[in-house]
Amino acid sequence: MYSRSRIARGLVSRHTPIAQCALKTTSTACTTRTAVIGASVPLWTPHRATIHTSHNRPANPVAPKPMHPDPRENPMVGIAPDKNVNVAQRRMADFNLSGRVFVVTGGGRGLGLSLAEGLAEAGGYVYCLDRDNKVDRRWEEAARRATEWGGQLRYRQQDVQDAAGMDRTIAAIADAHQRLDGLVAAAGVQQITPALEYRQEDAARMLDINYTGVLMAATAAARQMNKHKCRGSMCFIASMSGSVANKGLLSPVYNSSKAAVIQLARNLAMEWSPINKKDGTGGIRVNCISPGHIVTPMVEKNFEEVPGLRDLWESENMMGRLAEPHEFKGACLYLLSNASSFMTGNNMVIDGGHTSW
Length: 357
Ligand SMILES: NC(=O)c1ccc[n+]([C@@H]2O[C@H](COP(=O)([O-])OP(=O)(O)OC[C@H]3O[C@@H](n4cnc5c(N)ncnc54)[C@H](O)[C@@H]3O)[C@@H](O)[C@H]2O)c1
Prior knowledge:
Layout: H1 4-8, H2 18-25, H3 27-40, E1 101-105, H4 110-121, E2 125-130, H5 137-148, E3 152-157, H6 163-177, E4 182-185, H7 200-227, E5 233-237, H8 252-272, E6 285-291, H9 297-305, H10 309-315, H11 329-336, E7 347-350
Parallel strand pairs: 1-2, 1-4, 2-3, 4-5, 5-6, 6-7
This protein binds nicotinamide-adenine-dinucleotide.
Nicotinamide-adenine-dinucleotide (NAD) binds at residues 105-106, 108-112, 130-132, 159-161, 186-189, 209, 213, 237, 239, 291, 293-294, 296-299.
């Protein structure tokens, strides 16, 4: 420990953790310690990491860095974040998804595939659920890239309109890994039709996929998170069209299905975010991303159907361009990682300023 005189001279504080003190005393000690720590600390395993508090911290000079914040001093312990998560032992550890398991509906292509790839890039084990019975070249390339970063992409054919089947698929994934940490609900369809021409069956189909499909995916995932006591996180892909009547886009049912998804996220967050202190269930955060226009297969079809639509959309946001799917990876990673541990029931609008003027 440090002598009273050193503390009195302000060289070290009574409360300064060991690693910080080493840093202030000799740089050699810090380097040596860091090197040994880097070699000895395994990949981040949130549920198995040893917690070192000032009570049980070993005297061994190569002990891991202290937790930040120290769980004894953190009034939120037992509520959030998980006290087994040893933040600050790795660079930006809040974003590390190693050892975690995720499901992405609509992960076969477009935005869903990009978001799935982002989670795998951060080390996650990601299952893409989509209705097609096989994957295309872009999915295969993304799966190959994912392994370079230590993550994995897997594919399961699953239509979100088959709620019972989706429940079984998500249960099988969670049981195989004994955990489920997150869901991205990105499966969605679009139909450009003026309101007066909308047929009842088309409206029902749209809502069944875009709204009920999200609800059923979320409940299937929440059942598994509760079963395995995982304090998971969900990200629903809504749209800026859920908050505004989108100029140049005559799709009244699509737009209102996205408004319903935003409202669903608030309600599920209210039900599932608190932790049930009796049985340890809950602690599930639910948020939305509302993207602006992104160039995906869905939107390319819109451009074929409506001449001049691309020019109109590009002129409607502050950046004068449309988005690429990969521009949403960071936001999704934020929502599904510890980085957003105090965020729930909310909607991130990422639209190049489209709805801000
Ligand atoms: N592209 C945009 O400009 C934009 C903007 C805002 C929101 N979104 C939303 O992002 C999400 C992804 O859209 P995208 O642009 O990548 O479209 P996309 O058509 O390229 O991808 C949608 C994916 O969902 C899958 N899917 C559709 N119905 C399904 C079902 N019943 N079961 C399982 N999978 C199903 C499709 O097979 C496809 O792989 C959608 O929810 C969409 O509404 C897109």
